Amino acid sequence: MPLPLYQVDAFTDRPFAGNPAAVCLLPAPREAAFLQAVAREMNLAETAFLVRRPASADNADDWDLRWFTPTVEVALCGHATLASAHILWQTGALGASRMARFHTQSGLLTAEQRGDWIVLDFPAEPPEAVPDPPPVLAQALGAEPLWVGRNRFDYLVELPSEAAVRALAPDLRSLKTLPVRGVIATAPAEQPPFDFVSRFFAPAAGVDEDPVTGSAHCCLGPFWRDRLGQDDLLARQVSERGGTVRVGVRGRRVELGGQAVTVLTGELADPALD
Questions:
Q1: Active site residue 46
Q2: Over the stretch 147-164, which tens digit does the pLDDT of each residue have?
Q3: Where are the domains of the chain?
Q4: DSSP the chain
């Protein structure tokens, strides 16, 4: 039976910007090999797979959600969660006034509509300082960090300026040897209304540079809250496609706000795998 499949540009209000994600609606759970094969075929940073949970009075709007890059399953992904919520509301699978509830490897995540924006509730992932970062990190980035931290997913590297972040042309093969999902590079924004900028490189996860990374802002939010002394921040990921993220630090949680645009709708033939 064909499966509904969508491509959504997330963290943007216009097509062909932000971060593209595929969203596949499944009638029932499928084996990981099938999901990985579909994600490899889509060849986007992430493909999201949604299965509605059996409805009850307590979980009428609950979905199981998994994310795959072309090479691996990941434990947390912001832009594909944003895209998933957008598709649920757009297709009528979820009422416009209802909150989306996603059961994931990182626990329960929620999404709600606030005007033209979608707001995700994610776990905060603050970085811990790394006093002696591996020399290959700076060598691979081609830039000397002001500060290096790490959380359970990534290294966070603070650079002296937005210009330094924009100028990065890292040695991706060397970055791939680091024992992390990816490397976040960040600096204060040079122009209002933005508070900080970033880029994200994850060659070990099959994504050389991610255009806009929601989960990275679970780390960036607490980091810049401590630096700037404000809980609500406006971020710009300065990849080639670029994208905007509203970040609100709420104790051990982070609110990530973004917009989304559907650019493709279709059906997956659902071939059997050997």
A1: yes
A2: 999 999 999 999 999 999
A3: 3-117+258-268, 128-251
A4: --EEEEEEEES-SSTT-SEEEEEEEESS---HHHHHHHHHHHTSSEEEEEEEPPP-SS-TTEEEEEEE-SS-EES--SHHHHHHHHHHHHHTSS-TTSPEEEEETTEEEEEEEETTEEEEEEE--PPEE-SS--HHHHHHHTS--SEEEE-SSEEEEE-S-HHHHHT----HHHHTTSSSSEEEEEEE-SSTT-SEEEEEEEGGGTEEEESS-TTTHHHHHHHHHHHH--SEEEEEE-SSS-EEEEEEEETTEEEEEE-EEEEEEEEE--PPP-
